[in-house]
Amino acid sequence: MGQVTEDAPTAATTGRMATTQRYVLWIAVLGSFVAFLDGTIVNVALPAISEDLGGGLTTQQWVVDAYLITLGALILVAGSVSDAYGRVLVLRIGLIGFGIASIAIAASQTSEFLIVARAVQGAAGAFLVPSSLALITSNFTGAAQSRAIGIWTAMTTSAMIVGPLIGGLLVDLVSWRLAFLINVLPIGVTLILLARGGFHDVRHPGASIDWLGATLCTLGLGGMVYALIEQPNSGWAAPNIWIPLVVGAVLFVAFVLRQRYVRSPILPLDLFRVRNFWTGNVATAFIYGALALNGLVVVVYLQEGAGLPATLAGLASVPMTIIMIFLSSRAGAWSGRWGPRFFMTVGPITMGIGALLLLTTTAEFSYWWQVLPSMIVMGVGLALTVAPLTSAILGAIEPERSGIASAVNNAVARVAGLVTVAMLAAIVGGSLDLDGFHRAAIVTAALMIAGGITSFLGIRNPPRDAVDQPPT
After folding, report:
1. 3-state class of 393 per DSSP?
2. What phi and psi values does residue 4 have, to the nearest 5 degrees?
3. Domain boundary, last residue among 239, 263, 287
4. What is the DSSP string of 293-344?
């Protein structure tokens, strides 16, 4: 295979992938697959985890948010490391760490140990998605890049089928612990492909990483999230709530201020001077905050409220995933041809309409009439959104900074999910009953529609002469 030159993209504009590009695409897909796979498994396993280890809704929130705290904070460091020391090195670190953490989760005997293991897994996951996407943006350009991102989106979202199916079966028939071990197979395959591919990273001498900034970011997010999750149990006036909230906010502000002056910032604020980048990230915050909230609420309510087994609850969203798989690549190609603005507007608003369809759910539960229509509509909207959103944000930044640009966008998405999950108790009114389920659907719809409006007002399509024509 030879060397992958990250500073000079190798993508041709003919629309046909070279052998090297196909190889890169498969590595990127598999490298991200494990992170997406885990995201679907954990939601399915949450009721079984809380039943086994105790803690109720609070434990469920922490199992999700412990992962998102470290992922959201360290994904920025991973982007800097990816640009400075190479995509392949970062990808290897992430894969190995993710595998070890998955084994630790499966062996957990207490909720506290599991939450710590999830935090470690989030730290490892921070090294996966940015380096995977950076491999694509460094080796594809123009319409070929949009098509490759569309394929990456479709293939990685297939984890949303594999995860609930296998994970749900293991939860129902064996144990939730084994559901976390299925990550090991794609991790092993990706490591083998990396070893056989003959890749050599391009490293930048003199590069440095802002570890102090990463610490400020992690502690800041952690303090605020702790307060949001525990507030329903103690109240805002309790010192164990307002002190972490204030300290966390101060540390996070200090992190942002530090990024203005540090020599090698992990959050380069100058990126936000690019219109499509900052607008796309605002839209990302709305959209992915809504997706995280909806994904958790639906699968948990279907088990605890509607009484479905874990397998069926996990498979409830499969129609949405199937639609994504079939349409994402095409939506990416359309976005490369006509620009992302239309798709980033219509897609989220369509998902908002799909979320509102969940209001038809009643105590006399029927998946086919009350949930399936929502999944279909949301699937269409999601397919129209994801690839154009990614292309618009990464396409606005020069290729040599694609690693950090991807990391920032992923951090925004994860932190948005972190906040909505942390506010779950406040959103649903303390318990995830039918009324709480309806309230979550309304909040999801509002966030989605806000994402669509943001895209319409802020996103600008690239000039027609700058868009490569698709293959005929």
Report:
1. helix
2. -95, 110
3. 263
4. HHHHHHHHHHHHTS---HHHHHHTTHHHHHHHHHHHHHHHHHHHHH-SHHHH
3-state secondary structure of 34: helix
Collect all residues with Cβ–Cβ distance below 8 Å to 127 and sequence separation of at least 6: 74, 78, 81, 82, 90, 91, 93, 94, 97
User: What's the pLDDT tens digit per position in 44-64?
Assistant: 888 899 888 887 888 888 888
Instruction: Give the structural domain span for 274.
Output: 19-209+264-466
State the pLDDT confidence band at 3, using cuts at 50, 70 and 90. Answer: very low
DSSP 8: S
Mean pLDDT of the chain: 82
Q: Is the pLDDT confidence value at 124 over 50?
A: yes
Which of 245, 263, 281 is the last residue before a domain boundary?
Answer: 263
| C-alpha span between 403 and 335 (Å, rounded) | 21
Residue 407 lies in a domain: yes
Lowest mean pLDDT, pick from 11-15, 76-80, 406-410 = 11-15
* Closest-CA residue to 114 (of 153, 164, 61, 152): 61
Q: What is the mean pLDDT of residues 234-245?
A: 88
Taking the C-alpha atoms of residue 377 and residue 357, their distance in angstroms, rounded to an integer, is: 9
- The CA distance from 300 to 453, in Å, is 29
Report pLDDT for 14: 44
269 & 166 share domain:
yes
When computed from its CA atoms, the radius of gyration of the chain, rounded to whole angstroms, is 21
Distance between alpha carbon 214 and the CA centroid of its chain, in Å? 19
Rounded CA-CA distance 406/394 in Å is 7
pLDDT digits (tens, 9 = 90+) for 421-439: 888 888 988 778 899 999 9
SS3 content of the chain, % helix, strand, coil (to 5): 80, 0, 20
pTM above 0.90, yes or no: no
Number of structural domains, the chain? 2
Distance of CA 372 to CAs 271, 318, 454, Å?
Answer: 40, 10, 28
